[in-house]
Write a structure and sequence with these properties.
- The protein has 286 residues and is of the alpha/beta class.
- The protein folds into 2 domains: 84 residues, 3-Layer(aba) Sandwich (Rossmann fold); 125 residues, Rossmann fold.
- Helix content is 42%, strand content 15%.
- The chain has a 6-stranded parallel β-sheet with strand order 1-11-8-7-5-6. A 3-stranded parallel β-sheet has the order 3-2-4, with helices on both faces. A two-stranded antiparallel sheet has the order 9-10.
Length: 286
């Protein structure tokens, strides 16, 4: 039986349409305009594309976006001053600093400077802590997107064995917490895991987030497993985008699988928009 292809473009469009309606109602009935401030330091081409996509999503949903494009030689002090101003502005619900930042700026200091109440990326230590103990807070957008992909594709999570390959602060660790919250049995595997293939092969759900092109091949997978590919890499041979999973092989074994591109990627921005909406509700005591 052919694998179910999990269409992230379609699911992210559904979420954006739902948010568009919620944002419209919030504005019309309560006079609240959801606002996101986006800060980009320097000229990184990939970052410029991401920021453009985020602005486009804001426009579509009806979220007001404020854009701050700072030169490459911006000092850390200047950036922190801007973040502080935005933290104190009543009309700003979410603050996003596009990573990576130039080398003179410390990424951790920047993340820590954003108010947890406006941390729509879900990277602040307080946001991560809230996730760990199940309190209300912002969840890192990519892992939150993976949960929506699974739920909206009618894939059972509760009671299932889930293996997450990768332990980054942005994907692997928060992903493990979210899967636990959904009552999965979770194993976090990584570069030091002994016999990774055997660990993956017992999983009902494999979530690959290692950043190595096509590392997870068909022989890592149990027949009928759900495979979520978070990786975005350039294929060294063709130069085309590919994931951490060898899709062409895996699609013949998996029960359901996300493609790259068009799987997890579009969900990240949809969940960022959702976090902005949630931030506006929180700031207005709703």
């Amino acid at each position: 039986m052919a694998a179910q292809i999990i269409d992230g473009k379609k699911i992210s469009s559904e979420i954006k349409d739902e948010l568009k309606e919620k944002v419209r109602i919030l504005k019309e009935e309560k006079g609240i305009e959801v606002t996101l401030a986006v800060i980009l330091v320097g000229e990184d081409p990939a970052s410029q594309v991401y920021v453009r996509n985020k602005k486009r999503a804001c426009e579509y949903i009806g979220i007001r976006s404020l854009s701050y494009e700072l030169p490459e030689d911006t000092t850390q002090e200047e950036l922190l001053k801007l973040i502080d101003e935005l933290n104190n502005r009543k009309d700003v619900d979410g603050i996003l600093v596009q990573m990576p930042v130039p080398e003179q700026i410390d990424e951790k200091t920047v993340i820590d400077a954003i108010s947890p109440a406006k941390d729509v990326d879900g990277f602040h230590p307080m946001s991560v802590g809230a996730l760990c103990i199940g309190e209300r807070g912002f969840v890192s957008c990519t892992p939150a997107g993976v949960i929506q992909l699974l739920k909206r594709s009618n894939i059972e999570i509760s009671g299932k064995e889930c293996v997450i390959v990768g332990r980054s602060n942005i994907v692997g660790k928060p992903m493990s917490m979210l899967m636990l919250r959904e009552n999965a049995t979770v194993t976090v595997a990584h570069s030091r895991t002994a016999d990774l293939k055997a660990v993956c092969k017992r999983a009902d759900i494999v979530i690959a987030a290692v950043g190595k092109p096509k590392m997870i091949t068909a022989d890592y997978l149990k027949e009928g497993a759900t495979v979520i590919d978070v990786g975005i890499n350039r294929n060294p041979e063709t130069g085309k985008l590919c994931g951490d999973v060898d899709y062409d092989g895996a699609v013949n074994v998996a029960g359901a699988i996300t493609p790259v591109p068009g799987g997890v990627g579009p969900m990240t921005i949809a969940m960022l928009m959702n976090n902005c909406y949630e931030a506006a509700l929180m700031h207005n005591g709703l």
